[in-house]
Write the structure tokens for this entry.
Amino acid sequence: MKLPFAGAIDCDLHPAVPDVAALMPYLDDFWREHLTERYIDHSPFVLASYAQNLPQSARADWRPKQGVPGADLAALRRDALDAFGTRFAIANVLHGAVALYNADMAAALCRAVNSWIAHAWLDREPRLRASILVPTQDIELAVAEIERCAPDPRFVQVLLLVMGDRPLGHRSFWPIYRAAEKHRLPIGIHAGSTFRHAPTGSGWPSYHLEDSVLQAAAFEDTLVSFLAEGVLQKFPGTKLVLMESGFAWLPTLLWRTNRSWRGVRTEVPWIDRAPAEIVRDHVRFTLQPLDVPNGDVLNRIIDHVRSDELILFSTDYPHWQFDGEDALPEGLSEAMLRKILIDNPLATYPRLRAAADADQPVPMREEMAR
Amino acid sequence: MNKPVPESETRAAQRLGFVDCDIHPVQRSPKDLYPYLEPRWREHSETFGGHLCQGLSGQLSFPRMMASGMRADAYPSNGGPPGCDLELMQRQHLDLNGCDTGMMVCLSRGGMEERNLEFGAALAHAVNDWQIHDWVKKDRRLKAGIVVPQEYPEFAVREIDARAEESEAFRQVIISPRSSEPLGRRKYWPIYEAIARNNLVLGLHPAGNPGGHPSSGTGWGTYYMQEHYTFGTSISGNVVSLITEGVFERFPNLKVALIESGFSWAPSLGWRMDKQWAHMRKETPHLKRPPSEYLRQHFWFCTQPMEEPEEPAHLYDVLDWIGWDRMMFSSDYPHWDFDDPRQALSFAMTEAQRAGILRDNARALYRLA
């Protein structure tokens, strides 16, 4: 169904970097020359998980006649912000920098992407906010990028891909979570893989369809990693937002981890209460792609997880998850819709809450330049 | 007057008569297999031993929790690991709980994860002999699963045909879900053809030893708690592969039993597959129906480890979505997370639903008398 009222908060949409040329103003002389010399200044830097031709990478009526889907601010305004009456929207730029092996190149490109989104998009569109893209290839560089961007209140979370070198709860990532907690930035974990490992425990599947479906399993294993490693005890201010994760698998995870915790708690003594309670306190999920057949089933799933605070509205623009303006399933109560569209996002993102309370666009901070 | 009634007496009085779809017999030592191994492979076993895809020799890289993952009371008094002693298994489980039929799933030394293919084949052949001579012939309640190394389809096909011919005690074929490729890939199709040809069932059970890939697309976890969770996700990845590759269009009679793999994930997997497929179906023109229909038609699920929702009634939704005719009781004897047939099905259901899970569904799938 269509959104019943204006003022929704879209927690996952995807502006795209049109080409490397767009990033050049935000790269220093060394990297400008380096990329040019290696002839990779015209390379796409597009993640394989979101290769541009794939049907799900852009809805047909949102796909531009030429160029990269999501690269045009006017189109995003018209199709994603105006069309849904959006009050705030969080831009997650899924740039290929995060899949490189060279940590310095990745860090330079992440820096450029974050500066580009701030200048080319956030400065021009007050409804937009953005996530901080970080180079997890080098945790110190990732933390430095968080510190560089955090003073700009329009950056509202840290962005990670669900499949990388190792499960994201691992201690090697903890400096990222420490920095994010300090700045009250949720950790947004988005679908997608750098393909450091096969997508399944038994190797490489044949089809794109499988890669898409298997994202859900990666989110499950990632969430179990956060639980088992005790990240949410170590950094109790952390909020995790799983994006394009699906939601219908969550009851299974809560039930299985509640049960297995009773058997393994001596191995993970820092888990001080039932995993389901920890998840309900710390973890949120964006709505699209909706992985239930209808709103009735979604209501059952919400009942199973015993919380109506976990789902955050998203359109996933320009990815193809629904047709027309029917971004919501039928059959949810008015109260539930209000939670999904407005209350839950505001409760998840302190910086959105502050902006909503101030009820005015947040001005650009000078520290962010370059 | 205050003398307690022995549990064996109270239990015998209310005999359940169930099919247990997951029982794990094991060799007391590698020497148990020697009568069934050629001298060349006995010598190989002693000189070189197993050659697996992991960093530790002679133990699992994610050590299990309690008593090496076993029921502590299942260790035989005369030595050896739990599951090596038929008499104890009878006393402690088959007789005590009133088990009509026990489906044996042999996980160790079956050659499924062995890198040396010929050694793996010799081990599988020996374990299949051992199941018949050391177990089935001594207790007719027990049924066997033909163990074959999935990475050696040529041998697997010969072994499946020969065992199906040899004994009707073999009711299914066991391969490792920690394969080198997802199980739907063409490489494994000759195995499915042999299974379908012989009216057997494909049985998948999580494997302790990896097959060359991390347990998850996110990489290796740190704790057994994580590894334990991947028992479900590593199976569901193979379910996606079997369906997406069109295995069930090619072998419409193929039936798959998912053992100790969980089950509450199945409905959401079906919904997710259908949703993605609707947008990408041109990639898989060989699929004639939505993926969830293959899931509903070709897969059976075992109960252990029983899902435990915070509100038990929620399980009812899940079984409605999966189909009550697709659930089969399993105990996982003698492993530590053993489910008691009297307690595992404690949530409200009809007598017909209970009978289906306890025996009728497994009888129909495995063609048991």
About this structure: Residues 361-370 of chain A have pLDDT under 50 and may be disordered.
